[in-house]
Automatic annotation (TrEMBL):
<protein>
    <submittedName>
        <fullName>2-hydroxyacyl-CoA dehydratase</fullName>
    </submittedName>
</protein>
<feature type="region of interest" description="Disordered">
    <location>
        <begin position="15"/>
        <end position="42"/>
    </location>
</feature>
């Protein structure tokens, strides 16, 4: 009975072929599904995402505050400027001084 020599390279190629033909093993425990956000959290996330997109657009096109205000109707532009002024005037909270 004659046998062909079986070398290590042949073994590696056959092993690689088997690995490629096998489907990926499924995880034993699936990841838990994330809980749906509440109405307030979903709205806050939507507003935050819109704000980020707006600021990125403003930075990309190098728009000034005047350009942004002119884009909106007059009432909304004034409200936007008032918000900017109010945010700039807000003072940081005072921290309690350590008792000596």
């Amino acid at each position: 009975m004659s046998s062909k020599p079986y070398d290590f390279r042949q073994f590696q190629t056959e092993l690689a072929a088997l690995d490629q033909s096998k489907p990926e093993p499924k995880q034993a425990s699936p990841e838990p599904k994330p809980k749906p956000l509440g109405k307030k959290a979903a709205e806050a996330a939507r507003i935050a995402r819109a704000r980020e997109e707006f600021l990125a657009l403003r930075a990309r096109h190098q728009l000034s505050v005047a350009d942004v205000v002119a884009f909106f109707p007059e009432e909304e532009g004034i409200a936007y400027l008032q918000q900017l002024l109010a945010a700039a005037e807000q003072k940081p909270r005072r921290r309690k001084s350590p008792a000596s």
